[in-house]
Amino acid sequence: MLKKEKKILITGGSKGIGLELVNYFCKNNYSVTVLSRTFDEKRVKKKINFLKLNILNKKNYTNLKKKLKKINPDIVIHCIGGALGVRDTLSPIKEWNKVFYFNVGHAIEINNLILPEIIRQKKKCNVVHISSNSTLDYGPDIKKFGGAAPYICSKSFLNTYVKLAAKEFTNTNISFTAFLPGPILLKHKYWYSLKKKNPKIFNEFIKDYLKGKNFLVAKKVANIIIKVHKNDLSKKNGKLIEIKN
Fold first, then answer.
1. CA-CA distance, 24 to 219, in Å (whole number)?
2. CATH number, domain at 37?
Protein backbone atom coordinates (compact mmCIF):
# COMPACT_ATOMS: atom_id res chain seq x y z
CA MET A 1 0.00 0.00 0.00
CA LEU A 2 1.29 3.43 -0.92
CA LYS A 3 1.97 5.81 1.95
CA LYS A 4 -0.62 8.56 2.02
CA GLU A 5 0.76 11.97 1.06
CA LYS A 6 0.79 14.33 4.02
CA LYS A 7 -0.68 17.82 3.81
CA ILE A 8 0.83 20.98 5.26
CA LEU A 9 -0.53 24.52 5.44
CA ILE A 10 2.05 27.29 5.73
CA THR A 11 0.86 30.86 6.23
CA GLY A 12 3.30 33.55 5.14
CA GLY A 13 5.12 31.06 2.94
CA SER A 14 6.36 33.53 0.33
CA LYS A 15 9.34 34.93 2.25
CA GLY A 16 11.81 34.27 5.04
CA ILE A 17 11.17 31.34 7.39
CA GLY A 18 7.95 30.39 5.61
CA LEU A 19 9.62 30.09 2.21
CA GLU A 20 12.47 27.98 3.63
CA LEU A 21 9.86 25.62 5.09
CA VAL A 22 7.92 25.52 1.81
CA ASN A 23 11.10 24.51 -0.05
CA TYR A 24 11.84 21.73 2.44
CA PHE A 25 8.36 20.22 2.54
CA CYS A 26 7.97 20.39 -1.24
CA LYS A 27 11.25 18.51 -1.67
CA ASN A 28 10.02 15.91 0.80
CA ASN A 29 6.83 15.20 -1.13
CA TYR A 30 4.28 16.90 1.09
CA SER A 31 1.15 18.39 -0.40
CA VAL A 32 1.90 22.05 0.39
CA THR A 33 -0.65 24.85 0.64
CA VAL A 34 0.75 28.37 0.95
CA LEU A 35 -1.31 31.24 2.27
CA SER A 36 0.26 34.63 1.47
CA ARG A 37 -0.10 37.83 -0.51
CA THR A 38 2.27 36.69 -3.28
CA PHE A 39 4.18 33.58 -4.26
CA ASP A 40 6.64 32.71 -7.01
CA GLU A 41 6.02 29.05 -7.81
CA LYS A 42 9.22 28.91 -9.88
CA ARG A 43 11.17 28.93 -6.61
CA VAL A 44 10.07 25.41 -5.72
CA LYS A 45 10.40 22.26 -7.76
CA LYS A 46 6.96 20.93 -6.99
CA LYS A 47 3.76 22.80 -7.75
CA ILE A 48 2.00 24.06 -4.63
CA ASN A 49 -1.55 25.00 -3.80
CA PHE A 50 -1.31 28.79 -3.49
CA LEU A 51 -4.12 30.73 -1.82
CA LYS A 52 -3.63 34.44 -2.31
CA LEU A 53 -4.56 36.40 0.79
CA ASN A 54 -3.82 39.75 2.37
CA ILE A 55 -4.46 38.77 5.98
CA LEU A 56 -5.42 42.34 6.94
CA ASN A 57 -8.13 42.48 4.27
CA LYS A 58 -11.13 40.94 6.07
CA LYS A 59 -13.22 40.71 2.88
CA ASN A 60 -10.38 38.88 1.13
CA TYR A 61 -10.15 36.45 4.08
CA THR A 62 -13.91 35.80 4.18
CA ASN A 63 -13.88 34.80 0.52
CA LEU A 64 -11.29 32.08 1.25
CA LYS A 65 -13.01 30.45 4.21
CA LYS A 66 -14.52 27.58 2.20
CA LYS A 67 -11.16 26.73 0.61
CA LEU A 68 -9.41 26.78 3.97
CA LYS A 69 -11.96 24.39 5.47
CA LYS A 70 -11.22 21.81 2.76
CA ILE A 71 -7.45 21.67 3.30
CA ASN A 72 -7.57 19.23 6.25
CA PRO A 73 -3.79 19.42 6.94
CA ASP A 74 -1.52 17.18 9.01
CA ILE A 75 0.68 20.17 9.91
CA VAL A 76 -0.07 23.88 10.16
CA ILE A 77 2.76 26.40 10.47
CA HIS A 78 1.83 30.03 11.08
CA CYS A 79 4.69 32.29 9.93
CA ILE A 80 2.89 35.61 9.44
CA GLY A 81 3.91 38.34 11.85
CA GLY A 82 5.71 41.61 12.40
CA ALA A 83 5.48 45.03 14.04
CA LEU A 84 3.93 46.72 10.96
CA GLY A 85 5.88 49.85 11.86
CA VAL A 86 3.78 50.37 15.01
CA ARG A 87 6.36 50.90 17.76
CA ASP A 88 5.04 53.33 20.35
CA THR A 89 3.42 52.02 23.54
CA LEU A 90 0.99 54.96 23.26
CA SER A 91 -0.06 54.06 19.72
CA PRO A 92 -3.82 54.34 19.07
CA ILE A 93 -5.81 51.24 19.98
CA LYS A 94 -6.69 50.84 16.28
CA GLU A 95 -2.99 50.31 15.56
CA TRP A 96 -2.64 47.89 18.49
CA ASN A 97 -5.57 45.88 17.15
CA LYS A 98 -4.02 45.75 13.66
CA VAL A 99 -0.74 44.41 15.03
CA PHE A 100 -2.59 41.91 17.24
CA TYR A 101 -4.61 40.57 14.32
CA PHE A 102 -1.50 40.35 12.11
CA ASN A 103 0.41 38.32 14.70
CA VAL A 104 -2.28 36.35 16.51
CA GLY A 105 -5.89 36.99 15.51
CA HIS A 106 -5.69 35.64 11.97
CA ALA A 107 -4.01 32.43 13.18
CA ILE A 108 -6.73 31.85 15.75
CA GLU A 109 -9.39 32.33 13.06
CA ILE A 110 -7.65 29.85 10.75
CA ASN A 111 -7.28 27.30 13.56
CA ASN A 112 -10.96 27.75 14.41
CA LEU A 113 -11.85 27.00 10.79
CA ILE A 114 -9.80 23.88 10.20
CA LEU A 115 -9.37 22.14 13.56
CA PRO A 116 -12.99 21.13 14.39
CA GLU A 117 -13.15 18.73 11.42
CA ILE A 118 -9.68 17.35 12.20
CA ILE A 119 -10.78 16.69 15.79
CA ARG A 120 -14.01 15.08 14.57
CA GLN A 121 -11.97 12.70 12.40
CA LYS A 122 -9.60 12.00 15.34
CA LYS A 123 -6.80 12.86 12.97
CA LYS A 124 -3.32 13.91 14.08
CA CYS A 125 -2.35 17.54 13.44
CA ASN A 126 0.62 19.57 14.66
CA VAL A 127 -0.05 23.31 14.88
CA VAL A 128 3.07 25.48 14.97
CA HIS A 129 3.28 29.22 15.65
CA ILE A 130 6.28 31.50 15.17
CA SER A 131 6.55 33.78 18.20
CA SER A 132 9.54 35.82 19.42
CA ASN A 133 12.12 35.64 22.20
CA SER A 134 11.43 39.34 22.84
CA THR A 135 8.49 38.02 24.88
CA LEU A 136 11.04 36.66 27.36
CA ASP A 137 13.23 39.75 27.82
CA TYR A 138 10.80 42.41 26.47
CA GLY A 139 13.12 43.39 23.65
CA PRO A 140 15.96 45.89 23.32
CA ASP A 141 16.19 49.34 24.89
CA ILE A 142 13.22 51.26 23.53
CA LYS A 143 14.79 54.72 23.61
CA LYS A 144 17.96 53.59 21.89
CA PHE A 145 16.75 51.08 19.33
CA GLY A 146 13.05 51.79 18.95
CA GLY A 147 10.15 50.06 20.63
CA ALA A 148 7.71 47.45 19.43
CA ALA A 149 5.29 47.19 22.35
CA PRO A 150 2.21 46.09 20.35
CA TYR A 151 4.27 43.39 18.63
CA ILE A 152 5.81 42.05 21.85
CA CYS A 153 2.45 42.06 23.64
CA SER A 154 0.82 40.25 20.71
CA LYS A 155 3.47 37.55 20.69
CA SER A 156 3.15 37.21 24.48
CA PHE A 157 -0.58 36.61 23.99
CA LEU A 158 0.32 34.03 21.33
CA ASN A 159 2.55 32.16 23.80
CA THR A 160 -0.31 31.98 26.31
CA TYR A 161 -2.72 30.85 23.59
CA VAL A 162 -0.37 27.99 22.63
CA LYS A 163 -0.02 26.90 26.27
CA LEU A 164 -3.77 26.96 26.93
CA ALA A 165 -4.71 25.31 23.62
CA ALA A 166 -2.20 22.51 24.26
CA LYS A 167 -3.72 21.95 27.69
CA GLU A 168 -7.31 22.02 26.43
CA PHE A 169 -6.68 19.56 23.59
CA THR A 170 -4.30 17.28 25.45
CA ASN A 171 -6.68 14.32 25.01
CA THR A 172 -6.90 14.77 21.25
CA ASN A 173 -4.36 14.23 18.46
CA ILE A 174 -3.84 17.98 18.11
CA SER A 175 -0.59 19.50 19.38
CA PHE A 176 0.38 23.17 19.72
CA THR A 177 3.95 24.42 19.69
CA ALA A 178 5.59 27.86 19.46
CA PHE A 179 9.12 28.72 18.34
CA LEU A 180 10.67 31.88 19.78
CA PRO A 181 13.55 33.04 17.57
CA GLY A 182 15.81 35.96 18.47
CA PRO A 183 16.35 38.90 16.07
CA ILE A 184 16.37 37.73 12.45
CA LEU A 185 17.91 39.54 9.49
CA LEU A 186 15.32 39.44 6.69
CA LYS A 187 15.27 41.67 3.61
CA HIS A 188 11.64 42.67 4.11
CA LYS A 189 11.92 43.44 7.84
CA TYR A 190 13.01 46.23 10.20
CA TRP A 191 16.59 45.19 11.03
CA TYR A 192 17.63 44.83 7.40
CA SER A 193 16.30 48.31 6.69
CA LEU A 194 18.07 49.72 9.76
CA LYS A 195 21.36 48.17 8.65
CA LYS A 196 21.20 50.27 5.47
CA LYS A 197 19.75 53.45 6.94
CA ASN A 198 21.68 53.63 10.21
CA PRO A 199 24.63 51.20 10.33
CA LYS A 200 25.95 52.88 13.50
CA ILE A 201 22.83 52.03 15.52
CA PHE A 202 22.65 48.63 13.85
CA ASN A 203 26.18 47.76 15.01
CA GLU A 204 25.46 49.14 18.48
CA PHE A 205 22.45 46.81 18.64
CA ILE A 206 24.67 43.82 17.85
CA LYS A 207 27.18 44.87 20.50
CA ASP A 208 24.65 45.87 23.17
CA TYR A 209 21.60 43.62 22.80
CA LEU A 210 23.06 40.62 20.93
CA LYS A 211 26.27 40.72 22.99
CA GLY A 212 28.35 40.48 19.82
CA LYS A 213 26.45 37.48 18.41
CA ASN A 214 25.14 37.36 14.85
CA PHE A 215 21.57 37.87 13.72
CA LEU A 216 19.65 34.73 12.98
CA VAL A 217 18.81 33.93 9.35
CA ALA A 218 15.63 32.33 8.05
CA LYS A 219 17.32 29.07 7.04
CA LYS A 220 18.71 28.45 10.53
CA VAL A 221 15.32 29.01 12.16
CA ALA A 222 13.59 26.80 9.58
CA ASN A 223 16.18 24.03 10.09
CA ILE A 224 15.50 23.97 13.84
CA ILE A 225 11.74 23.72 13.21
CA ILE A 226 12.40 20.91 10.71
CA LYS A 227 14.62 19.07 13.20
CA VAL A 228 11.88 19.16 15.87
CA HIS A 229 9.36 18.07 13.22
CA LYS A 230 11.51 15.04 12.33
CA ASN A 231 11.57 14.05 16.01
CA ASP A 232 7.75 14.37 16.18
CA LEU A 233 6.32 17.79 16.95
CA SER A 234 3.57 16.26 19.06
CA LYS A 235 6.19 15.42 21.70
CA LYS A 236 6.64 19.17 22.17
CA ASN A 237 2.96 19.88 22.80
CA GLY A 238 2.60 23.11 24.79
CA LYS A 239 6.32 23.94 24.56
CA LEU A 240 7.75 27.39 23.83
CA ILE A 241 11.02 26.61 22.07
CA GLU A 242 13.54 29.44 22.17
CA ILE A 243 15.92 29.82 19.22
CA LYS A 244 18.91 31.82 20.38
CA ASN A 245 21.27 33.97 18.33
1. 10
2. 3.40.50.720
